[in-house]
Amino acid sequence: MKNKRFRARLAAAGILFLLTLGLIYAFFPFLWMVSSSVKSNNEIFVQPPQLLPRVFTLATYQGIFQDPGKLRFFINSYIVSFCATALTLVIAIFAAYGFSRYDFRLKKSLNVFIISTQGVPTMTLLIPYFGLVVSLGLYDSYWALILTYLVFTLPYAITMMTGYFNTLPRELDEAVQIDGGTPVRCLWRILVPISTPGIIATGIYTFLLCWNEYLFALTLTKSTEMRTVPVGIQLLMGEHTYEWNEMMAMSVLGSLPIVIIYLFAQKYFLAGLTSGAVKG
Q1: Sign of torsion, CA 35 37 38 42?
Q2: Among 25, 29, 27, 50, residue whose Cα is nearest residue 39
Q3: Which residues contact 215 (CB under 8 A, 6 or more apart)?
Q4: What is the pTM of this model?
Q5: What pLDDT shows up at residue 280?
């Protein structure tokens, strides 16, 4: 009996030790990023490297907040990410409702097509989208990024919301129809309110994709007034010198929206992912 307890405690201690190592491994890059952002650029190159700064300074953050050009990067990212996320959710909710509640020709084929688009490498679409955006006169504009991101986020959003709507009983629709309600009324008055976890989970993931996207943001814009945060960080890399402390400060500020959103909506995010995975 004592041997079993000892083995159980030993196993628990081993698991705790491995989890601690994993936490340190995952958290250390972020900690180093924060530490580098409060150092002078010269101190970052000190050998051997030191985690804690010798001289704590917030000059890099003050420089960012006092520079309208750098603040513009954040404004652009917020505009593009929120608009793309909102459009994605509206379209995905309607599409998912149709896939979940109605049977029609080519339904399975459309589902397969939507899922298969996730397997297309984005790099191969760069030149076609660039030509399309230029021909439509949208180059170097918010709409160039919003519409492009919409194409990449919709397949996941539709799949996620369809899986979540499939978990909701059809009796809800029937009850609304008996009372004379339309399908649209059933969707927005009944299904959408009780699908909040799934919608929030889909919205967080969509916002994350849009906020962190770099390749198309770099290609489809040319003026510094239209650049987003990922591109703005890259612009701090000069020809002969790198402003590492400023780059790290920009990275910290760029990470905060995702961290804050996830912390406040964590329970909805986890509930939405697990519920949407029950039925596909």
Answers
A1: positive
A2: 50
A3: 122, 123, 126
A4: 0.82
A5: 43
